[in-house]
Automatic annotation (TrEMBL):
Taxonomic source organism: Algoriphagus aquatilis
Keyword Transcription attributed: no
Domain Chorismate mutase: 266-357
Keywords per UniProt: Isomerase, Transferase
PROSITE patterns: CHORISMATE_MUT_2
EC number: 5.4.99.5
GO molecular function: chorismate mutase activity
PANTHER family in the record: PHOSPHO-2-DEHYDRO-3-DEOXYHEPTONATE ALDOLASE, PROTEIN AROA(G)
InterPro entries given in the database record: Aldolase_TIM (IPR013785), Chorismate_II_sf (IPR036263), Class-I_DAHP_synthase (IPR052899), CM_dom_sf (IPR036979), CM_II_prokaryot (IPR002701), DAHP1/KDSA (IPR006218)
Protein name in the entry: chorismate mutase
Superkingdom of this protein's organism: Bacteria
SUPFAM superfamilies found in the cross-reference section: Aldolase, Chorismate mutase II
Segments traversing the membrane: none
Length: 365
């Protein structure tokens, strides 16, 4: 696959960290104008203005967006702030209208990314069109679906691409509206070289408090920008009232975030090089030990086979899990990390032994 175009090459004068702000929904022309005026007064003009025109609502009966009319109001943004605008599209008709009104950047929402039919319909509507598209992560933590949506755009010729990390729904974790699951955006960046990911703390937190903390974490993890819902009178917003901030608060937040330099852009100094060499060496040792461990696992597998024992033995597994986790905790490793590590090693061990068993049976037959 040839490389896609990064944000700086979209031809819109954007750079990273990219700051996107604007209301959850466009409500009235006066609302858009007021937000723009306050952004200007507070000296916090984002690089890209967002506004929802069609709102995908979980339950019917709530405000579903102003529709095409709202696209005309985006002229107000251009007039006051002279910045490009982005809106969410959920089907081919939305794409057609957004393009008709010269929307600069499109985004696909989390409820659409989960549905390959809908994503493909949007992709077909975009075939041969030169417009940047940002894809929000799907509601569920499924990297394949997220990548799949990006690939569907790329396949029809959309090469100006970015991703938006807006968290994942989790019925049990009440701390967030959508749990961040930081490993997902990081995985995406690892899997698709150069893919920039914008963090959307508003939909992750779902409340005003806690936004800053999530935004800072995103920068610490090396994500490439922030999308923050901003409204001149958040409490009276027609959608997502609890999570929107005023332009004044947006300014305060942006000013207090420590925007890190990506390591790749820095000339690594001596100290960093030394430390990296130490890590390389430790990783080699880690791999040697894993190799040895799996050699022993294979011997155990052979023994189980000879004695007609099952590969998975739950008592032993529980003992390994508990004792290693306790040891890890004493070494200041977190319980969650220990459990994930042990699951991963154990899963591989079971797979190897099961494969050995299948191969031995095939030879017998
Ligand atoms: C939004 O950005 O207002 C929105 C509906 O987001 P999401 O698709 O992340 O729920
Ligand atoms: Mn919203």
């Amino acid at each position: 696959m040839k490389p896609h175009k990064q944000i700086k090459d979209w031809g819109l004068g954007l750079t990273t960290p990219l700051i996107i702000a604007g209301p959850c929904s466009a409500e009235t022309p006066e609302q858009i104008e007021q937000i723009c005026k306050e952004m200007k007064e507070e000296n916090i003009v984002p690089q890209l203005f967002r506004a929802g025109i069609w709102k995908p609502r979980t339950r019917p009966g709530s405000f579903e967006g102003v529709g095409e009319e709202g696209l005309r109001w985006l002229e107000i943004v251009r007039h006051h702030l002279n910045i490009p605008v982005t809106v969410e599209v959920g089907n081919a008709a939305h794409v057609e209208l957004a393009l008709k009104h010269k929307v600069d950047v499109l985004w696909i929402g989390a409820r659409t990314t989960v549905n390959p039919f809908a994503v493909q319909e949007i992709a077909e509507a975009l075939r041969g069109v030169d417009v940047p598209v940002m894809i929000k992560n799907p509601m569920n933590p499924d990297l394949e679906l997220w990548m799949g949506a990006l690939e569907r755009m790329y396949a029809v010729g959309i090469d100006k691409l970015a991703a938006i990390h807006r968290g994942f729904s989790d019925a049990y974790d009440k701390r967030y509206r959508n749990k961040p699951n930081w490993s997902m955006p990081i995985h995406l960046k690892r899997e698709w070289t150069g893919m920039e990911v914008i963090n959307d703390p508003s939909h992750i937190v779902g409340r005003r408090d806690g936004l800053l903390e999530v935004a800072q974490s995103a920068m610490n993890f090396g994500l490439d920008g922030l999308m923050i819902e901003t409204h001149h009178d958040p409490d009276k917003a027609w959608s997502d009232a609890k999570q929107q901030v005023t332009p004044a608060r947006l300014k305060e937040m942006i000013d207090s975030i420590d925007f890190k330099q990506p390591l790749e852009n820095m000339k690594p100094d001596e100290r960093l090089q030394d430390l990296r060499r130490a890590v390389d060496h430790l990783d080699d040792q880690l791999l040697d030990i894993l190799q040895e461990r799996f050699a022993v696992i294979d011997q155990i597998g052979a023994h189980k086979r000879e004695h007609h024992l099952t590969v998975f033995q739950s008592d032993r597994w529980k003992e390994v899990m508990d004792s290693r986790t306790q040891k890890g905790i004493k070494k200041h490793l977190s319980e969650k990390f220990m459990k994930e590590l042990l699951y991963c090693i154990h899963e591989e061990s079971v797979k190897r032994q099961e494969k050995q068993l299948r191969e031995a049976e095939a030879v017998k037959k």
